[in-house]
């Protein structure tokens, strides 16, 4: 990945659905905004890509009729790279703290968990991505994550491939080790998790302009 050499900071959060990303991102955003930082909250893949037929098909159907997962993933990786250049980098150049809900690590974990381990193109694309200053992997057991997702009224009946969640967890753990992500166990209380996030933020951000 490419170091950005700007005065901003890029902070990313990845992990299973229901691991606690939105919860911690919201708390961090509130904290930083109160402290006077300029914060950009953003998300990968982008909303435009999430609305595409190919993404919705893969997300919402168990059999992925008519689509190759890799085709979707390649398009998502392109969307992520473009998002780095048209959204993340300009904000970093303005000195903002950019917080991304999911990042390339999610793309990689999803490909590997589906058995696409020979595909080299993802690493080529990854090499051009902006390197986060702080990359969090929120780790949680699959059962708890599922329980949290299922507790949302509108997701009680959403299709979830449970076997895939186990493989994803294991790939996320490997990737966290390979790419220097900081692992936070989100079976801890929300406030303990947030304290850990803040501790790491203060470590890297002592030079950021408040
Ligand atoms: N550390 C925690 N301890 C207990 N409950 C938590 C913790 N973190 C999050 N939760 C709860 O788990 C649920 C899911 O959290 P959240 O929406 O933040 O997950 P997410 O990773 O953003 O999920 P998704 O990937 O589906 O967007 C929420 O009800 C939240 O209150
Ligand atoms: Mg979320």
Structure overview:
The chain is α/β, with parallel strands linked by helices and 210 residues long. It has a single domain, classed as Rossmann fold. The chain has helices at 21-34, 47-50, 53-60, 69-93, 104-113, 121-126, 142-150, 162-178, 190-205; strands spanning 9-14, 39-43, 97-101, 134-139, 182-185. The chain is globular and about 50 Å long. The two termini are 27 Å apart. The mean pLDDT is 93. It binds adenosine-5'-triphosphate and magnesium ion. The site of adenosine-5'-triphosphate has 14 residues, from helix 1, helix 7 and helix 9.
What keyword list fits this structure?
5 strands; Rossmann fold; 5-stranded parallel sheet; 9 helices; single chain; alpha/beta; 210 residues; binds adenosine-5'-triphosphate; 52% helix; binds magnesium ion
| SSE-based structural type | alpha/beta
3D shape? globular
Write out the CATH superfamily name. P-loop containing nucleotide triphosphate hydrolases
Task: Give the tally of structural domains.
Answer: 1
- Low confidence ranges: none
Beta percentage is 5-15%
Q: Average pLDDT value?
A: 93
Oligomer: single chain
Strand order of the largest sheet: 2-3-1-4-5
Which ligands occur here?
Answer: adenosine-5'-triphosphate, magnesium ion
Rg over C-alpha atoms, rounded to the nearest angstrom: 17 Å
């Amino acid at each position: 990945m490419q170091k950005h050499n700007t005065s901003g900071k890029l902070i990313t959060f990845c992990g299973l659905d229901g691991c606690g990303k939105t919860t911690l991102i919201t708390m961090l955003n509130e904290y930083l905004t109160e402290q006077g930082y300029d914060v950009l909250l953003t998300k990968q893949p982008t909303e435009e890509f999430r609305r595409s037929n190919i993404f919705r098909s893969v997300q919402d159907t168990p059999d992925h009729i008519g689509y190759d997962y890799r085709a979707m993933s390649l398009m998502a990786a392109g969307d992520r790279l473009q998002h780095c250049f048209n959204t993340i980098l300009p904000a970093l150049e303005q000195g903002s703290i950019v917080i991304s809900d999911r990042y390339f690590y999610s793309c990689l974990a999803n490909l590997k968990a589906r058995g696409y381990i020979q595909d080299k193109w993802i690493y080529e694309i990854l090499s051009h991505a902006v390197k986060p200053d702080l990359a969090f992997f929120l780790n949680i057991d699959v059962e708890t994550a599922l329980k949290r997702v299922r507790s949302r009224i509108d997701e009680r009946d959403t299709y979830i491939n449970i076997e895939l969640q186990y493989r994803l967890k294991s790939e996320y753990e490997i990737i966290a080790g390979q790419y220097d992500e900081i692992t936070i166990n989100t079976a801890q209380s929300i406030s303990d998790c947030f304290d850990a996030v803040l501790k790491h933020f203060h470590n890297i951000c002592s030079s950021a302009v408040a």
